[in-house]
C-alpha cells in the first residue's frame, strides 16, 4: 500500500489578503450578517463598486472553510458586474474557481480560470494571469492530466519569478514536484521540492514547510532511502501536531508505518498504523481508514496471523466500499486472498483475487493487477496448472512493466521462452518413451503367438524406433540451436546493460566534476572529487564487463592496473614520485565481490596518495592473495604513518567508515598499523570467484 499525500496548499490567492487560518468570520450568523451588509451597501456607501468590494473581501476570507456559502454570496453581486472594475471582475471569476476547487469540481475550476485568461489582454495584469495559470494547473493535476498541468505551472512560474511574493513561487514549485513524482522523475521532483522548502522556510510558513517535508519523504521512499524518508515524515508529523492538523498527523503516521513496513520492521510499522487509525477514527476521516486497515492486515499476513489479517481487511473492505473507493477495496481484496489461501480456502481466495483483478484492470493499476494475477496463479498451480499458467505469464509481463526496464523485460521473456521450450522438449521425450513401451509390449504379445510374425513385428518396431530416434535427434538439435541463440541474445542484452550502467556512472562522474569546479570551499570540493573517484571505480567494473567475453567476473590484476592509473591521473601524481608495487594473484572475481573490493582499494590508495607523503615521494605496496582463511588484502606504504590507528577506525572518518562497512559486508577483518608508515591488513572471508 503506497504512502499518502497530504492536502495541497490552498489555491494561489490575491496578494495582500489574509490567510484563512486567521479568519475571524467563521460562524454561520456572521456570514448572514455579511450578506445583509452587502445588501444594504448602496444606502451605506452609495456605490455598487463598494458593495462588490465588500463581497469579494468576504469571499477571500470564507472560500476555504465555507465554499458553498461563498458561491451563494458571490451570486448576490452578479447583477452588479457591469459596474465592477476590471480587477473586480477577475476576482469575481477567481473566487468562483477557488470555491469550486475546495468542492472538488475541477471542470468548473478550469472553466472559471480559462475565462480569466480569455478576459485579460496580452501584457495586462500579469499577476492575475499567473494566478489563473497556477490554479488551472491544479485542476489539470487533479484530473490526472500531468503534461498539461506541468505546462501551465511552468508558464505561471515564469511570471511569479519576477515578483517579490515568495508564497506563490513555493506553491507552484511544490505542485510541479507532485507532477514529477507521479511521472517517476525523482531528481526533478527533489529539485523543485527543495526550492519550495527554502521559500516557505524564509516565510516562516510552518504548514507549507510540513507539506513539502512529507512530499520530499515520498521521493526518498520511492528510491528506497528509508532513513531519509522517515526523517522527513517525522518532521511532517511534528509540524502537524504543533499546528493541530489532525489530518496531517494521521497521514504522517500512516506514511511512517509504510516506511518501516518496507524496511521489514513490522513492530514499528504496526505501532504507527495503530496510531494513525486511532486519529482517523477520532476525527471521522472515513475516506482514509481503509488504507490503514489494509496496512495492518498486510503485517498480520506477514506474521502468519491470518485470523487478524482477515479481520483487518474485511473491515477495510467494508469501509472502502462504503466510501466508493475502488483502489483501497482492491488492496484489501488482495490481502484477503492471501489470508484465505494460507488457511486452505482456495475457492474463497480465488473469488477475492478475481474481484481485485476486475477493479485493478478497471482502474489501470499495474501493481494491483500484478498481485491479483500472482495470487490466482498460486491458488491454481497445484490443482489446475493449465489454468494457472496464463496468470503466471500475465504476472511476469506486469512485473517487467513495473520495473520499467526494457532490458530486464527482454531477459525475463527470454527465460520464459526457454522454460516453455524445455517443458515442450520433456513432454516430447515422455511421449516417445510411452510409444516405445507400447511398441515393446505389442512385440512381446506377438512373439508369444507366432515366432515369425513376432520377428517381423520386431523389425517393424526397430524401424519405427529408428525413425522416432532420428526425428527426436532433429528436434533436440533444433532445441539446442534455439537455446544457443537465446543465450547469445542474453549475452548481448547483458553487455548492453553493463554498457548503459557504465555510461550512466560516467555521466554522474562528469556531473560531480563540473560541480566541483564551481565549489569554492576546499572541503566540499574534495568531498565531490572523492565521490567522483568512487563512481569511476564502479564504472571501471562495468566497462571491463562490457568489453570482455566473460560477463560474470573480472581479472583483479587487470582491474587494479586500470584503477591505479585512474587514481594517479586524478590526483596528478607522477609514477616517478610515488612507486606502487603490486603482488596480486591471477583471480577472476565475481562482480558482487569486486565492487566492494574495488571501493576498498580506491579508499586505501587514495588515502596513501593524499596523506602519506606530504614531503615528497615514497612507495606503496599492494598485495591480494588467496589463502586458506580467505582473500588477504594488504596495502602498505612507507609514509608518515599515524599516531592512533584505532582512533581513526573508530572515529568519524567517512573513508574508513566506508571501508569498515564494506569489509563487514564481505565478512572480513580489518587491522591498521600506523608505525613506520601505514599498513592496512584485511582478510575477506565471504568472497566469490567467478564461475
Overview of the molecule:
Helix content is 73%, strand content 6%. It is α+β, with helices and mostly antiparallel strands. Among the domains are: 205-283, Tetratricopeptide repeat domain (Serine Threonine Protein Phosphatase 5, Tetratricopeptide repeat, Alpha Horseshoe); 285-292 and 301-381, Serine Threonine Protein Phosphatase 5, Tetratricopeptide repeat (Alpha Horseshoe); 552-684, 2-Layer Sandwich (Heat Shock Protein 90), CATH 3.30.565. Residues 7-46 and 404-427 have low confidence and may be disordered. The chain crosses the membrane at residues 451-470. Its EC number is 2.7.13.3.
Kindly summarize this structure in a few lines:
This protein is an alpha+beta fold.
SSE map:
Blueprint: H1 28-39, H2 41-45, H3 48-62, H4 67-75, H5 86-102, H6 106-119, H7 126-142, H8 146-160, H9 166-182, H10 186-203, H11 206-222, H12 226-243, H13 246-262, H14 266-283, H15 286-302, H16 306-322, H17 326-342, H18 346-363, H19 366-380, H20 385-403, H21 406-449, H22 451-517, H23 522-546, E1 553-555, H24 556-570, E2 578-584, E3 588-590, H25 591-612, E4 618-626, E5 631-637, H26 645-650, H27 654-665, E6 668-673, E7 678-684
Key terms:
691 residues; alpha+beta; Serine Threonine Protein Phosphatase 5, Tetratricopeptide repeat; Heat Shock Protein 90; two-stranded antiparallel ribbon; 27 helices; 7 strands; 73% helix
Amino acid at each position: 500500500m503506497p504512502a499518502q499525500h497530504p492536502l495541497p496548499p490552498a489555491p494561489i490567492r490575491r496578494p495582500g489578503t489574509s490567510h484563512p487560518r486567521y479568519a475571524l468570520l467563521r460562524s454561520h450568523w456572521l456570514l448572514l450578517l455579511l450578506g445583509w451588509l452587502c445588501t444594504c451597501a448602496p444606502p451605506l456607501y452609495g456605490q455598487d463598486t463598494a458593495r462588490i468590494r465588500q463581497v469579494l473581501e468576504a469571499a477571500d476570507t470564507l472560500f476555504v472553510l465555507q465554499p458553498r456559502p461563498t458561491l451563494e454570496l458571490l451570486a448576490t453581486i452578479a447583477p452588479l458586474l457591469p459596474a465592477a472594475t476590471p480587477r473586480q471582475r477577475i476576482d469575481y471569476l477567481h473566487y468562483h474557481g477557488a470555491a469550486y476547487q475546495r468542492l472538488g469540481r475541477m471542470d468548473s475550476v478550469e472553466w472559471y480560470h480559462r475565462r480569466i485568461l480569455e478576459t485579460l489582454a496580452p501584457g495586462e495584469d500579469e499577476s492575475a494571469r499567473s494566478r489563473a495559470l497556477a490554479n488551472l494547473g491544479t485542476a489539470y493535476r487533479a484530473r490526472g492530466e500531468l503534461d498539461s498541468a506541468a505546462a501551465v505551472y511552468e508558464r505561471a512560474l515564469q511570471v511569479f519569478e519576477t515578483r517579490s511574493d515568495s508564497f506563490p513561487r513555493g506553491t507552484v514549485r511544490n505542485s510541479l514536484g507532485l507532477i514529477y513524482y507521479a511521472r517517476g522523475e525523482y531528481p526533478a521532483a527533489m529539485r523543485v521540492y527543495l526550492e519550495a522548502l527554502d521559500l516557505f522556510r524564509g516565510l516562516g510558513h510552518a504548514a507549507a514547510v510540513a507539506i513539502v517535508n512529507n512530499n520530499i519523504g515520498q521521493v526518498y521512499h520511492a528510491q528506497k532511502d528509508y532513513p531519509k524518508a522517515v526523517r522527513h515524515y517525522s518532521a511532517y508529523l511534528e509540524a502537524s501536531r504543533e499546528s493541530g492538523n489532525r489530518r496531517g498527523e494521521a497521514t504522517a503516521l500512516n506514511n511512517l508505518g509504510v516506511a518501516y513496513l518496507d524496511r521489514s520492521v513490522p513492530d514499528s510499522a504496526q505501532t504507527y498504523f495503530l496510531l494513525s487509525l486511532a486519529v482517523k477514527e477520532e476525527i471521522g476521516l472515513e475516506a482514509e481508514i481503509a488504507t490503514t486497515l489494509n496496512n495492518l492486515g498486510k503485517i498480520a499476513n506477514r506474521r502468519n496471523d491470518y485470523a487478524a489479517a482477515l479481520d483487518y481487511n474485511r473491515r477495510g473492505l467494508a469501509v472502502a466500499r462504503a466510501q466508493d473507493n475502488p483502489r483501497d477495496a482492491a488492496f484489501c481484496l488482495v490481502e484477503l486472498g492471501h489470508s484465505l489461501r494460507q488457511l486452505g480456502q482456495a475457492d474463497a481466495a480465488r473469488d477475492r483475487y478475481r474481484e481485485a483483478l476486475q477493479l485493478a484492470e478497471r482502474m489501470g493499476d499495474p501493481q494491483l493487477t500484478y498481485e491479483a494475477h500472482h495470487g490466482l496463479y498460486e491458488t491454481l498451480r497445484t490443482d489446475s496448472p493449465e489454468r494457472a499458467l496464463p496468470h503466471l505469464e500475465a504476472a511476469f509481463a506486469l512485473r517487467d512493466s513495473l520495473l520499467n526496464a526494457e532490458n530486464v523485460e527482454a531477459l525475463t521473456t527470454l527465460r520464459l521462452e526457454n522454460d516453455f521450450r524445455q517443458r515442450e522438449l520433456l513432454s516430447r521425450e515422455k511421449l516417445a518413451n510411452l510409444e516405445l513401451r507400447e511398441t515393446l509390449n505389442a512385440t512381446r504379445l506377438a512373439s508369444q503367438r507366432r515366432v515369425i510374425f513376432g520377428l517381423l513385428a520386431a523389425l517393424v518396431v526397430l524401424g519405427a524406433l529408428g525413425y522416432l530416434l532420428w526425428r527426436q535427434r532433429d528436434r533436440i538439435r533444433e532445441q539446442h540451436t534455439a537455446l544457443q541463440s537465446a543465450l547469445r541474445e542474453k549475452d548481448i542484452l547483458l553487455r548492453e546493460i553493463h554498457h548503459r550502467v557504465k555510461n550512466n556512472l560516467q555521466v554522474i562522474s562528469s556531473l560531480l566534476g563540473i560541480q566541483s569546479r564551481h565549489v569554492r570551499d576546499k572541503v566540499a570540493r574534495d568531498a565531490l572529487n572523492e565521490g567522483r573517484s568512487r563512481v569511476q571505480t564502479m564504472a571501471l567494473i562495468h566497462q571491463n564487463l562490457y568489453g570482455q567475453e566473460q560477463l560474470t567476473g573480472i581479472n583483479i590484476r587487470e582491474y587494479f592496473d586500470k584503477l591505479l592509473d585512474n587514481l594517479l591521473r586524478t590526483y596528478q601524481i607522477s609514477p616517478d614520485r610515488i612507486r606502487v608495487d603490486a603482488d596480486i594473484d591471477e583471480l577472476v572475481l565475481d562482480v558482487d565481490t569486486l565492487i566492494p573490493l574495488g571501493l576498498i582499494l580506491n579508499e586505501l590508495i587514495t588515502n596513501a596518495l593524499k596523506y602519506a607523503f606530504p614531503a615528497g615521494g615514497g612507495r606503496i605496496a599492494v598485495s591480494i592473495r588467496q589463502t586458506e582463511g580467505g582473500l588477504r588484502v594488504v596495502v602498505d606504504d612507507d609514509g608518515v604513518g599515524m599516531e592512533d590507528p584505532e582512533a581513526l577506525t573508530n572515529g568519524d572518518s567517512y573513508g574508513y567508515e566506508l571501508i569498515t562497512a564494506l569489509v563487514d559486508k564481505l565478512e572480513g577483518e580489518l587491522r591498521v598499523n600506523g608505525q613506520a608508515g601505514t599498513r592496512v591488513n584485511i582478510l575477506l572471508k565471504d568472497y566469490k570467484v567467478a564461475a
